[in-house]
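Supplementary Methods. Inverse-folding protocol.

Structures were first reduced to a discrete structure-token string of length 546. This string, shown here, constituted the complete conditioning input.
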């Protein structure tokens, strides 16, 4: 199938690019063919975010988004920041927070529903969107430029044979291919490596965000209320924090982010989140309510110094595939949308000039002069300060640096992130096991009941999409050296060491059907032995209102 532009990923970045291309074509009286591939069962199925949304990107895409009834319906009315101790909470005065940390003018929403709405706008403009089709392979022309993608075959058994209903993948050829897969996308990872796009960038850094959606008792609901916390239950050497947002029909989005440069292999981000909810300051909001949904997703945290080169022969990286999240603000959707529009501008200009499969240098130039780069540069030293000095002192220094940058007198240089996240783990012999409390089934729950609420589903008889480079490593290296941390960093119970209790030789069991596509295993495996590839299209979570 031939298109002018193929976009991989129907998230805010990819859909904004598709919409902008059609808007430009309409203004110019031209026709341009645009296709969007989405591995989820529907647009928005795999979208997970807090989310407090800065409307800057939406304003640039649709100045009349309110009249179009975009689902940004709950403006932020109050903002609170707490430092948690084991049993208490210390509120931090809002006047201490740098201006960019304020949420006035932002909206609390389901980013999944915003994405579904963007999909409707795109289709109304003539964009072809294909949910349930996973882009599995890059295609190259004779000159080494990307000329499109191929989707994965459908109906392949675990053994690699063809089942009833087998359907071969499709090749989609394009003048330009835009990768908007989100964090650690499999094609984006391959593209960055193939073209060495990150050779002049720092290591990308990551966190894992785990989120639940609750419907709380009416008397506990505060429409537009935003709360963030630092501190307990994480120790001072482990970065992370929480969010709690009230919106819609008595809904509360509650989540916990753990930075993936943590050192203790016994740490479990999932259990830290469940323990966090049992804190008196948090529990009081949730008790008497109902947990509606659950999900998890990796977050890019490297920021300014970790952004790779954005363009390559035949395409470009958009949104979280490029790492445009502002970590202190815990926001990135506005930057994702803007990057999509900038890439669309460059692609449209190139196509109307008769070009194809070259580098969209106008997109790189637009980023270099953009609000995205300015925003990321302003906070570029916050994450390194947290990593070097710990949460308490690092937060103080990071806040001071943001104030100084706002006044244009901050550090004149950019701090490095140091080693990648997977290299941060200490050996199990040098670490202390963590005794997590058992779930009370009131505000804290076990992993499998949580995965059930994510509506995750994969066809069981298909090749595993969680692939091991060397099947011996989990038991021969990761287990003795790190107590096989995949059992704990995975928030969906995908990885288990089995056999030991029965007196058998231990082995790693991979429950791939549980996978919520968070990509943490691809990031945090200390041996970098796990390679996440796309499963059969349509598999994975089906997040409602997330």
């Amino acid at each position: 199938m031939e298109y002018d532009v193929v976009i991989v990923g129907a998230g805010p970045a990819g859909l904004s690019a598709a919409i902008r291309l059609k808007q430009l074509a309409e203004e110019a009286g031209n026709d341009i063919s645009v296709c969007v591939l989405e591995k989820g069962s529907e647009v928005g199925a795999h979208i997970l975010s807090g989310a407090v949304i800065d409307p800057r990107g939406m304003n640039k895409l649709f100045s009349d988004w309110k009249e179009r009834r975009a689902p940004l319906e709950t403006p932020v009315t109050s903002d609170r920041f707490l430092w948690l101790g084991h049993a208490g909470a210390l509120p931090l005065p809002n006047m201490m927070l740098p201006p960019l940390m304020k949420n006035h003018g932002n909206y609390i929403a389901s980013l999944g529903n915003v994405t579904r709405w963007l999909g409707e706008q795109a289709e109304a403009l003539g964009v072809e969107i294909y949910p349930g089709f996973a882009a599995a392979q890059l295609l190259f022309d004779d000159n080494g430029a990307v000329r499109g993608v191929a989707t994965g075959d459908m109906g392949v058994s675990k053994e690699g044979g063809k089942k009833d209903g087998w359907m071969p993948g499709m090749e989609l050829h394009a003048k330009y291919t835009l990768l908007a897969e989100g964090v650690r996308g499999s094609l984006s990872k391959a593209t960055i490596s193939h073209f060495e796009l990150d050779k002049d960038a720092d290591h990308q850094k990551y966190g894992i965000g785990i989120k639940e959606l609750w419907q709380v008792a009416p008397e506990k609901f505060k429409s537009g209320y935003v709360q963030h916390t630092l501190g307990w239950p994480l120790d001072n050497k482990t970065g992370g924090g929480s969010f709690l947002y009230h919106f819609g029909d008595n809904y509360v989005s509650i989540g916990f982010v753990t930075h993936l440069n943590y050192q203790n292999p016994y740490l479990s981000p999932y259990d830290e989140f469940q323990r966090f909810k049992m804190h008196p300051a948090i529990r009081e909001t949730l008790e008497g309510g109902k947990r509606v949904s659950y999900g998890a997703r990796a977050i890019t945290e490297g920021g300014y110094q970790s952004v790779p080169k954005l363009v390559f022969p035949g395409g470009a990286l958009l949104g979280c595939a490029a790492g445009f999240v502002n970590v202190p603000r815990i926001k990135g959707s506005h930057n994702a949308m803007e990057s999509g529009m900038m890439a669309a501008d460059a692609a449209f200009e190139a196509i109307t000039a008769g070009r194809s499969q070259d580098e969209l240098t106008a997109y790189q130039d637009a980023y270099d002069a953009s609000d995205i780069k300015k925003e990321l540069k302003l906070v570029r030293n916050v994450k390194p300060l947290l990593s070097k000095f710990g949460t308490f002192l690092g937060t103080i220094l990071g806040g001071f640096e943001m104030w100084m940058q706002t006044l244009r007198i901050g550090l004149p240089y950019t701090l490095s992130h140091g080693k990648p996240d997977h290299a941060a783990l200490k050996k199990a012999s040098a670490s202390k096991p963590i005794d997590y409390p058992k779930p009370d089934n009131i505000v804290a729950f076990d992993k499998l009941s949580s995965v059930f609420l994510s509506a995750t589903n994969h066809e069981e008889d298909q090749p595993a999409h969680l692939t091991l480079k060397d099947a011996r490593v989990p038991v021969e290296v990761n287990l003795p050296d790190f107590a096989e941390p995949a059992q704990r960093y995975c928030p969906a119970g995908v990885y288990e060491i089995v056999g030991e209790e029965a007196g058998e030789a231990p082995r790693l069991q991979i429950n791939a059907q549980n996978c919520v596509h968070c990509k943490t295993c691809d990031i945090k495996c200390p041996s970098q032995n796990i390679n996440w590839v796309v499963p059969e299209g349509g598999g994975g979570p089906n997040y409602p209102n997330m």
